[in-house]
Amino acid sequence: MSDEAQDQKKALAKLKRKATEIAGQIHDIVEDSLWTDYGQLPELSAKLVSACKEVDEFKSNNPVA
Predict the structure, then answer these.
(1) Phi then psi dihedrals of residue 35, to 5 deg
(2) Which Pfam families does the UniProt record give (predicted)?
């Protein structure tokens, strides 16, 4: 695998990790503190949608990744 392909895979993994971390924050609120922290859900949801779109865009622009 070329260095460029490896770099693309690393970049994709970083973007996916970002989305997964946001999803984890949402999960934690739902599991542990829904009734006190539900106000954070709209902002986190918007961030998650944005992060997922970044992954999709990256994948469409870098088919090797």
Answers:
(1) -75, -15
(2) Rop-like (PF05082)
Quickly tell me which residue has 């992954």 as its tokens.
Answer: 55
Report the chain (65 residues): mean pLDDT per 10 consecutive residues: 88 98 98 98 98 97 79
Which position has the token pair 């997922």? 52
pLDDT value of position 2 = 84
Which residues does 41 contact at the CB level (< 8 Å), separation at least 6?
Answer: 26, 29
Q: How many domains does the chain have?
A: 1
CATH of the domain at 13: 1.10.287
What is the pLDDT, as a whole number, of residue 4?
87
DSSP 15: H
